[in-house]
Structure of MarR family transcriptional regulator:
Amino acid sequence: MTEARWLDEGEQRAWRSLMVLQEELMEFLDRQLRTRCGLSSADYRVLAHLSETPGGRLRSYELGGLLGWEKSRLSQHLGRMEKRGLVTRERCETDQRGAFAAITPQGADLIRAAAPQHVVDVRAAFIDQLTPAELQTLTVIGDKVRARLGDLSAPE
């Protein structure tokens, strides 16, 4: 194991600023979704992915991959959403072990109502606070860090 290379003052400020930004922004957006639409951020993400696919359905493993969720988390969350009438789970005809998650008409109505309000909140709290150059820089940073995370996560 290598010895820790501690963060200097500027690095510490940048790191902590990113952590606080992420936490506060996600808390704000989650609170807005819950208050206005009765959806959690997780519900919104599931419905958004399903609503953007042809036929409004995805194989469960594909949805889990898009969300970055473990199989058990996805299963539990879909179960809660199913009880609320927002999604259904359907058996895969060609693979008996597989299943689809599908958006219901109620779920589709809810995401259609929530999406315009959500984008207003995203713009007000984040997008409209940055210049186009800052947004481009943020995109480059995000892509660079995600690529590195992929390298660090790859088996040796």
